[in-house]
Design brief:
This protein is α+β, with helices and mostly antiparallel strands. It has one domain: ACT domain (Alpha-Beta Plaits, 2-Layer Sandwich), CATH 3.30.70.260. It contains two helices and seven strands, in the order βββαββαββ. It has helices at 44-60, 86-98, and strands at residues 4-8, 11-15, 30-37, 64-71, 76-83, 107-111, 121-125. It has a seven-stranded antiparallel beta sheet with strand order 1-2-4-5-3-6-7, covered by helices on one side. Strand 4 and strand 5 form a beta hairpin. Helix 1 (44-60) packs across helix 2. The chain is globular.
Length: 128
């Protein structure tokens, strides 16, 4: 996955856009947001994981990988995925996350609707 890099308030943001960016808003209001400890400025393992996640969600037809944010010093980051059903999206990517060493202990938030204070969310932890 290739991204666009932007430095924002101490965060290095790598953004990957789906083939059709409108897919993120066209019925794909549920989300899976992965917060993880990384501990490196070498982003090759992160990009390799994102490539696997992207092919998994595309192959399963359950959503899109929208991109990531990673701290400038590499300490932690977030990956954003969107789809019509957060549970189906999580079920598809869970084996990929479980196989990645730096995903151990990652917090995965499943959001069941658009962003907002009243939207139901469920948080799980990846425990390998």
């Amino acid at each position: 996955m290739k991204g666009i890099w932007i430095l924002l308030t101490g965060l290095l943001v790598a953004s990957a856009h789906p083939a059709n960016a409108d897919d993120v808003t066209n019925g794909n209001e549920q989300a899976v947001i992965i917060h993880f400890k990384y501990g490196s400025t070498d982003l090759k393992p992160l990009f390799a994981l994102e490539d696997k996640l992207e092919s998994t969600v595309k192959g399963a037809g359950v959503g899109v990988l929208d991109g990531d944010e990673i701290a400038n010093d590499g300490r932690d980051g977030d990956i954003y995925l969107y789809g019509q059903n957060a549970d189906r999206l999580f079920d598809a990517i869970r084996p990929v996350l479980m196989a990645s060493p730096f995903m151990k202990g990652a917090q995965v938030t499943r959001r069941y609707g658009p962003p907002g204070e009243s939207t139901r969310q469920v948080v799980s932890v990846i425990d390998q």
